Amino acid sequence: MKSAIRLLVFALILMIAATALLYTQQRRLIFPAPSQYPQAPPPGFRLVHTQTGDGLRLSAFHRPAQPGQRTILFFHGNGDNLLGAIEATRGLAANGNGLMLVEYRGYGGNPGSPGEAGLYRDGDAAIRWLSAQRIAARDVIIVGNSIGSGPATEMALRHDVAALMLVSGFSSLPDVVGEAMPFVPRWLVRDRFDNVGKLARVKVPVFLMHGDGDTLVRPANLARLRRARPDATVALVAGVGHELAYSAAAQAIFADWVNALTDRPLRSGD
Predict the structure, then answer these.
(1) 31-262 has which fold?
(2) Sequence spans of domains, the chain
(3) Order of strands across the sheet with 233-237?
(4) Residue range 242-266: mean pLDDT, rounded
């Protein structure tokens, strides 16, 4: 009996220690910022800097829109950087759309540490920068890939933008963690990114795109987002996984949907 009690106590202590470790170190797993990142923008882009509400100066890449085209505000995935953002938006750039590629705090040589509240501040700073360039929020199409779906949805909720597109987006971060690691209590996930709870309150057109082979953010996330926003345009792309944003299929779908929106007059002069 005593041996069984000791074993139970040891298992309990081990579980508490593992829970504490996971709680304190989870952001290292959720935000694995690449150690290598571009030092200078590629042709057509310029390096710009935004100022966050909590005092951080963040780098970003900007490419101006051609006349009559809207600007894409792009939030990349958690393991990506501005180079990947350029690749994911190449089809949109080819159509003459403007691009504002956000780089998060703690990424790409930026100061600070990433987290849900911080990424929202980073998004707000990017929109303020665009406004200072006389690019109104309502002439901006927000695109979020993977974890970028979190700040993208929040920005579409806070600002009067033109539209919102989520690529490989999740219903919430606890949903993703719960599907990948069912043994982890959902309350343990510190950053929530509750997209499914916000989407119904977003007042602009919404586009949801997912790969049916995505094993990281499973297609069940798309189903939950779709239920939250029944009027959304939805594309489930066959034979593609979590790399969807970089695929030729995604580029064509991106461009077609954005072109349809761009056919509507810009509202800056309203």
Answers:
(1) Rossmann fold (3.40.50)
(2) 31-262
(3) 46-51, 57-63, 98-102, 71-75, 140-145, 163-167, 206-211, 233-237
(4) 83
